[in-house]
Each structure stands twice: as structure tokens, then as C-alpha cells.
Amino acid sequence: MEEMKVLLRNVDKINPKDAYDYAKAGGFEGLKKALSMSREEIIKVLEDSGLRGRGGAGFPTYRKLQFANSTENDTKYIVCNADEGEPGTNKDRILLSKDPCAIIEGMAIMGKAIGAHTGFIYMRGEYTYLREVLYAAIDSCKENGYLGENIMGSDFSFDVKLRMGAGAYVCGEETAMFESIEGKRGEPRYRPPFPGIKGLFGKPTVLNNVETIANVAPILDKGADWYRSMGTEGSPGTKLFSIIGNVNKRGVYEFPMGINLKELIYDYCGGIADGRGLLAVQAGGASAPFINKDQIDIPLEIDYVASSGGRLGCGTIMVIDDTNCIVDMIQNNLYFFKEESCGKCTPCREGTTRLYELVTKISSGRGKMSDLAKIRGLGETMANTAFCGLGRSATVPVESALQNFADDFEKHIDKDFCPVCDREGRVL
Amino acid sequence: MINLTIDGQQVSVDNGASILDAAKVANVTIPTLCNHPDQTVKAVCRICVVEVDGRPGLQASCSTPAEEGMVVHTASPKVIRARKDIMELIMARHPMDCLGCQSNGSCELQAVAGGMNMTKPSKYDMDIRKAKVDKSSPSIVRDMRKCILCGRCIETCSEVQGITVMAKENRGYDTMIVPPYGKSLVDTPCVNCGQCVQVCPTGAITIHDDTMEVYNAMEEGKVMVATIAPSVRINVAEALGEDPGTVSTGRLVTALKKIGFDRVFDTDFTADLTIMEEGNELLYRLKNGGTLPMITSCCPAWIKFAETFFDDHLDHLSTCKSPQQMFGPLIKTYFAEKAKINPADICSVSIMPCTAKKFEAKREEMNASGYRDYDVVLTVQEIARMIKTAGIDFANLEDTEFDNPFGLGSGAGLIFGATGGVMEAALRTVYEVVTGKDMAPLEFEPARGFEGIKEAQVDLDGTIVKVAIAHGLGNAWKIINMIKEGKADYHFIEVMACPGGCIGGGGNAPRTWEKVEERRKAIYEEEKRLPVRKSHENPWVKQCYEEFLGEPLGEMSHKLLHTHYISRHDLLGS
Amino acid sequence: MEDRNLTYRVPASKLVEIAKIAAPYRDKPEHLMKVILQSQEITPVFSEDVTAVIAREMNIPQTQVYSFITFYHMLYTEHRGKYVIHMCQSAPCHIRGAEEVVKAIEDLLGVKMGETTEDNRFTLAYSPCLGVCDISPAIMINDKVYGNLNADSVREVIKRYIREEVA
């Protein structure tokens, strides 16, 4: 499989702040076509393309649009989720900083598809320094007639506004993001009502990840068949992978869906750094399972990864070499979740901290076998009862580690020496 | 209609019903903690989870709509395991000091844990939230160690009352519901209404308990004088386990005598007095171009609210003290003289449906008698506990009459307990004073009921008087904004801080609208039975004016029965 | 709660500036984040007097403003230094030597994570993933990112701030 440049086509080739430059490179062709199409036609193209969400769950993009389109309301919204909070993920940062006009174009097309005239880009506070690029790109699109009143001489008007976060992973959850945009604490809402009916400011809203939105303009421009020529039957198109950790060539790469994980690590990214061995891989973000070195010969596409108990999610591949300790990794992982739990529901608020405590007990040699049972039981409770996806999936890494690296936990309980957990002055 | 199966039982429910609603129809009890019948669905405690065939995980029954053909299991092993685990998570952070907790016996958390057959301590390490108990308020005690973060108090304080004294601080495991910047309640715009106490499912927000002060005064040999507010007789029996709306006036007098009170008076009497003063004040303002609309001043939570948020319009407030604070000085002057008791030897105890009355009695200026006008204020909850403590079989008590010289309150005084009651009582008197005729019918229907803001007008022989009634401070906000914008062309406005009026007050047994409606019916039924239904026809009121006060708005009234207000705007921050 | 640093006072002139930022958004609570982020450029800490001004101008309860601020990791109600050093605590940095970087910073500045230097110039704070994992381990000082750090290189970075060579 070859690296492809569909989403990354303009990286370092155009001035990201200049809509005209983007247009010269073939930009806004998709929008131009969409402006002459009906809402249903646009949605049909996306349906035929098989585009699925790139943020986490892999939900078919056209269906979100369909819901919102079928809800009658004069005011609707498009929201771009640029809250890239998954540890290890930086693909959206590349798109936002190198080709923001493609995101703006995609949002406008989606706006046209549901009859929305306002779009919000919600960007995480840690990316404050990207504000300038985005404001410039939005202004440039307006100046060149690609945003604002009567886009490209059509009767369609669309505006994009930038909203900033200020450090809250949970705001990547779509309803929590709505709350945050509305000026509140970023706590999720329950569903139903679904966002397509009652979302941001109580209006029908379609929210998509940056990468999903970046796919929209090329699909409209080149057609569903072209899109389906890449990737797999169930997951067409390309995917950005943030490959990070103890791998020789870290970075964001674009490959067709279905690329083999092992090949990706060893053939394209130069294998493990410093000639060490592989301990584990976490593919799909902080809430993805930890798999061991015997489990990495898998195709990276949405359904396959899901069927194996994980999720492709944001496409983050964290490679962990054998100088690390899995118990330590899980402790770090649970620290993240306990810090990022919004605290709204009991299982997640209390459970994330308790999981962290239990794993900390084990890593520091105070654990018992019964603690493993407590972890499993609590994991089940959280997965079954937590309010939102954060609490429900926060248990996946620890549960997968208990399964795939059972020996390591038992060794810590047995007080066997661990060069990572037992070193002096260990932080955490 | 939607048909579904709950634990093998077919039920039909209306569209929009939740699984929890459907379970009620099927007579299946699902435990809940954050859910409250008067509030929005929160779905945060997750105790009410159930299993639904064909759906992954478990569903919160409160927020999941019932759907056609749904098959629900409310107590499967999977459900029970999850609920118990959640309960253990809660228990591991909850002080297990139920024996020393005011909510012992009325605590929803305790009841739910009991119902779930929790037989062991939590498997998680105990980690009680580090929070100081805030006893700074004379009305309300906050113990955030006991908080389960259900969010009911926040909804009440911000959505119903429109104040937002407290909100969530931090997030995740460190989340706590607090006033900002570690402030104590006394330093916040809290109006002491106690509506948060009403909805708190645990002992995290409770009433400031003053019962020991009563026992101490008894031991000191004080002459113990109790007064009973209009709605107390409606609410006490309920607080002692009887049905909502059970009137227990005579039994309550008996119980108080058994506890050790020497005299028991009826605050309906000073409610009548309030009408005499306030009615005349309204007429005076109408005649002499005084500030209008005039707004009632019976409700101490509303008064503190006005002093904080409405401090540049305080001249709209009637200068009349509340019935409680009219009674205080009368006990220590008029009554003391008549009974030949040294006022210093009297301990006056006001029994109220209200937590804010505790604050009111402690206001600096409330010493018109030369002494603290009221020594202690007890809420319905506290007096109910004292009755229990004394081992009194309340249900089977004989009736006893109130003591003299304040032996009788009119029906007009009694209906002070419900929203619109002060207005109705005032109109009965004002109408007759101006027109010389009885208001017919005496029941002024536009003032009754639970609509947030009620409006009406009355024709006083050609003079049209426009009135409005607001209950719940959220509704008071609306009226205030109208006045600020100059859009309120009313002459007279009644405001009660608690939704429903005093029968929904913060010192009562925990409320629901259903219960408050029962209390409302009871108060109007009871008023119909009373021999005198107009304040100015109360013979004891007449006697009090003749023997002691002189005339309404007279010099003595001015000294004892009227007051002034201060700005508390600084409570909103620098 | 007694140990909280509540003595921090913002000069009146800055409060006036903040009032000017907030005033146009009266009765528009959805702009709270915008107002707060702009105010943060004037004063880094949302002390009681700052939120009282924002609350008054936007006509929302101060408690709500406070609650909002305490939810978000990057907004502070307690005193912070001129430079906040955000140390990424997430796994990608963790497994590429974040601990070594933390120790080097702590040793250099003489304070532990979570603390502020005596001269009120530096605050050390852990942060979740900064999203620059291709150059981990990384830190962010205010909104400038530094990556591929080790003990030596992070000392060089911090020293430039100590010398105030960085704007």
C-alpha cells in the first residue's frame, strides 16, 4: 500500500491563510458543485461515498445530515469538532494549520446539505496559537466570496465562527461541546433528543470531526466512485494516522483505510526506535485497547478494529517499546481519565479515580489478586452505566491490559522487580 | 399510547413517558437518587439503570423514553450488580454517620441503600470529601461531605429562584457544589429560603437546628411562649407522617403544651394585624401619591432578595413588618404587661414553615420591644422532631384552644399561608374600608392557584386597583424587571419567595408540587370553617388597637410594627 | 479553604479594561468563553474581583462564572506566575522521557509541579496531551510549544525565559 495525499494534498504547498491560493490548487470545486445541487443530492453523494466519521465511532456521515435535514427549522448549525483531545493525536492540528480552507469548504457544503447558515469550529485551548491561521483563513474565504452572503453568486449564505475551548477533553463529546459553545461547563447531555433534532442552542445540529469534514469537499468534487476506489468496502477513503511513541519515524501519515498495522509500524515508520523490542500498541486513542506484539497483524479499518474489541477512532497509533511497563502505562492512562472526567455522573466521576487507585496500588507493589477482580467489576459497571462515552470507554484500556498482559499485573502483585515502577523518584 | 413490557408485565403509557414512568404504571419501584418529580431529568446518579433487550449496556430509566415493544428488566442480576457497585462508589465517599445526621430517617440515600440490601461496607477505600461544615447561615447548614452531586439544589437555586448561590466547582472526582471562592453561605446572596433543603436527598443541606435553645430556655425557667404560623397547622401532621393537607391546629397546641410551652398563640392574629397596617398603608399611598406599586413585606427571603438585587427600589416595599416580627414586640410589651410578666423572663418561639424566618428574627433592628423580639425560630421540621423526641402520640391528641389575648385569627390571616393569600386578605379589608360593602364573593379566585404570576384588578367604587402576585423568586425577578423598566402599572404586588407560598416553604417536610397542592386545598377548606374571615372583624385585633396600639399607622404601630430596609448589594461581589 | 491565596488583587485599571470586554455581551451568556479568554490576556487569574466584574457586565451570576472557570483546565482562579509551563502528562510524552524533563525543570526552578516560584514568574503545571506528539516529550510555555526535549534542552529553553530573552 502506498501513502496517499488526499487530505494532506495541500500541506506545505499553499498559503493556508489564503483562500485564493487554496482555490488555485483546486479548492472550492466541491462547493461549487454542491451549490448547484439539492440538499438530497449532496447527501446522496456522501451516502454513496460511504464516508464515515473519523472522530471515533465511525458513524456514517450522511445519516447525521439526513436527520438534521429532515428536521424542519429555520436555524440549524454545523459544528466542526477541532477539540482534538485524544492523547497522541495531532492529525487535526495538521489539517487546521496547513489547510483550513478545506475544512471551511467542507462545512459550507454540509451547511448547504441541511439548510444551515452558521458553522462553528470548536478548537481546543491547547491550540490557541492556531487561532490566527483560522481567523485569517475565514476572513480570506469571506473576502473571496467563499463564505458569507450569497456564496459564489448563489442564493446560499454561510458563515463560520471560531470558538475556543480551554482545556477539557470531555468537550470532544458532541453534546458537551454544545454546552461549552453555549458558555457553560462542558458536561454532556443525555440523548434523546439527538443533536440532529435538538443540538446546539436547541437547534438541529450536525457535528463532525475535522478530518471527516476535510473529506467532504474532495468527495463532492471527484465523486463517490473515486472515493470508493480507495480504502475498503466498509471503510472507503483514506485515513490519517498519528504514529507516535517509540517508533523511528513519528508523524502524521495518510494511508488508504485497511492498511496493515504491523506494516505501518515496521515498513513505513521504520520500526521501533533504538533497536528495542515492541511491548504493546494502543491504536485508536486513549480509550483504545492495549494490544500485545502478537496482535498487531491487523488491517486498520473501522469495522475490523471494532470487531476485535477496539476502535479505529481517531487513528492514533501509540507504539510502546519494551523498556516500558504496561502497568505503568495503564496508570498513566487512568490518570488521564480521572483528570478529564467531567464529574457529572457517579460511575465515571468515582470510578475513574477508583480504577486509578487500584492500579496505583498494584504498580507500587501493594496490590492483591482481589484488586484485579475489583478492577474488572468496576470496569463492567462503568461500561454499562456511565452517562457518556468517556466513562463507558475509559475502562477499555485497563480491561484489555488485564487480558493481554495478565502476567505483568501478577508480577507486580508478587512484588517482582519492575525497572519502571520500582525506580527511585518515580513520578505519578 | 406506547405498549411495552416491564419485568414480564404489559403496560401502556403516553408518548414521551420514560421507562421510569412506565415502571410506576406497572407498580415496579426503580430506585432513584437524582430524580425529583418537580425537576428536570438529570440522569446523573445512574442508580435507576435497567436492562433493555437489544440494547448494549444498561439504560438510565429516567432519561430513556419508553418505546413500542420494548422489553425491560428492572432487577436482573446484571442490573443489581451495577446498582450495587454504583452505591458502593457513593458509600465510599459518604460519611457513615447516619446516627448523628439530621436526615436520619428521611434521607433518600439511606432509603435507597436500604432498599438495595447493601449488607457490607463499600469495597472501595473510604475517602470522604474534605469539606468543612458551613454553619455560618442562621437558616441553612451545608455539609458537602454528604453531597452526592445530584444537582437538585443547583436547579432550585438557579432555575426556580434565579439566584445561583452555589454551583459546581472543579470537575471529576474533585467536583463540589459550593458558593464561589470558598465563601461561607452567610457571605453570599443566599436569601435563606431553604428550597435547597427541600430537594436535597441527603443530609448535605439541612436546616440550622435551634431546638436545644428551647430546652435551655425551659431549664432557665423562662416563660415559654410559642406562636404558630398559618401554614404550620397544615404542615406539621405531614412532617409527622400523616397525609399531606392534614390540618392539626388543636393537636399542635396540645403538643406544644406537653412539650412545655406556657402559652401558645396564633400567628394568624398578627397576620390580621399586618392586613390592618398594610391595607391602610396601601390606601395611604394611593391617596397621597406614595411609591407604587407597593410590594408586600411578609416574606423575609423576598426581603433579603430585594435588599440584594433590588436595592435601589426599596421604597416599593411596604414598611410593615412580617406577622412574625409584629408578634415578637407585642409579646414582650402588650402581652407581658397584661400578664404581668417581666419581658426579660419570656422566651418567645416562633414556629414557622420557613428557614428564612430564622434570619429575620436575627436581623439587628428586630428589637422594638427593647429585647430581642423573638428569641428562637423553629421550623416545621424542628417542631416535628421535638414532638417525636417528647414521645408524643401526635395522631391521637385532643385539641386545645389558643391562648389569649391573641385567641383568634381570621380566615384572612390563615390564607397568608398560600400564594395569593396576603393579597386576598388585604383586598377583603381594603374593599370594605373604601366601599363600605362586603367583597362578594369573599373568595377572590384570581389570587388563588399556582400560576407563576397572577394578575387581577379590583374596582373600589370607581377606583381600579391593579394587583399582581408572584411566588418563587424566579417569578419575582420578572416583576422586578418590569418595575425597573417602568412597565409595572400595578398598585399592589404580593411576593412570596417559595413556590406555592409558605405551604411550600423551606422549613416544611420535603415538598413536591403534588403535596403542596394538597396543602393548598386544605388551607382554603379550613379557612371556610372559621367564624371570622376578615381581618378587621377580628375582635381580638380590635381589642389590641383599643387597649394598646391606638390606630393603624399610628405612633405605637410605627414603633412596633413597621421597619426599614438596607442595601445588601455588596453581597454580589466587589 | 483557608489556605487559598485570595489576596491577589487586580488593579482597578485592569478591571475597567475587563468591564469593557464584557459589556458588549450583556445578556449573552454564550459569549462567556470569549470574554474570559480575552480577559485572561489582561490578567491571568480569575480572582473574585475579576469575575464579579464579568458577572455584573454580562448580567450572569458570579457563581456561574466561577463554576465555568473551575471546569476548564486552562483557566485559573488561583495565583499563577507570568509564565505557566505546561508539562504534557500524556502517554506519548510519558514514554519518551517526560519524567527526566520534569525533574530538570523542577531542579532548575526550585519548585515542584503545581507550584509557583517565589518571584511569581513561573508556575509548573501538568497538562493533558498538547497535541504535538510527533515531537514528544513537549512542554508549552504560555502558548509556545517546545518539543523533542531532554534534560539539557529544556534547561536551555527555561533559561531563555529566566533571562527574559523571549517575548
Give a quick precis of the structure.
The complex is a heterotrimer of chains A (428), B (574) and C (167). With 428 residues, chain A is of the alpha/beta class.
Describe this protein's structure:
- The complex is a heterotrimer of chains A (428), B (574) and C (167).
- By secondary structure, chain A is of the alpha/beta class.
- Chain A has 3 domains: 19-228, NADH-ubiquinone oxidoreductase 51kDa subunit (Rossmann fold, 3-Layer(aba) Sandwich), CATH 3.40.50; 238-321, Roll (Ubiquitin-like (UB roll)); 327-413, de novo design (two linked rop proteins) (Up-down Bundle), CATH 1.20.1440.230.
- Chain A has helices at residues 19-24, 29-35, 39-49, 61-70, 91-98, 100-114, 131-143, 174-181, 210-222, 224-228, 261-268, 302-307, 326-340, 346-363, 369-385, 389-393, 396-404, 406-413, and strands spanning 77-82, 118-123, 159-164, 205-209, 238-245, 251-256, 259-260, 278-283, 290-292, 299-300, 316-321.
- In chain A, the strands form 3 sheets. A 5-stranded mixed sheet of chain A has the order 6-5-11-8-9. A 4-stranded parallel sheet of chain A has the order 3-2-1-4, sandwiched between helices.
- Chain A is globular and about 70 Å long.
- With 574 residues, chain B is of the alpha/beta class.
- Chain B has 3 domains: 2-91, Ubiquitin-like (UB roll) (Roll); 129-207, Alpha-Beta Plaits, CATH 3.30.70; 211-561, Rossmann fold (3-Layer(aba) Sandwich).
- In chain B, the strands form 5 sheets. Chain B has a 5-stranded mixed sheet, sandwiched between helices. Chain B has a 4-stranded parallel sheet with strand order 11-10-13-14, sandwiched between helices. Chain B has a 4-stranded mixed sheet with strand order 12-17-16-15.
- In chain B, a hairpin with a 6-residue loop joins strand 3 and strand 4 (59-60).
- Chain B is globular, with a radius of gyration of 25 Å.
- Chain C has 167 residues and is α+β, with helices and mostly antiparallel strands.
- Chain C contains 7 helices and 4 strands, in the order ααααβααβββα.
- Chain C has helices at residues 12-22, 32-40, 48-58, 62-71, 91-94, 98-109, 151-162; strands at residues 83-88, 122-127, 139-141, 144-146.
- A 4-stranded mixed sheet of chain C has the order 2-1-3-4, covered by helices on one side.
- Chain C is elongated, with a radius of gyration of 17 Å.
- Chains B and C meet through strand 7 of B and helix 3 and helix 4 of C.
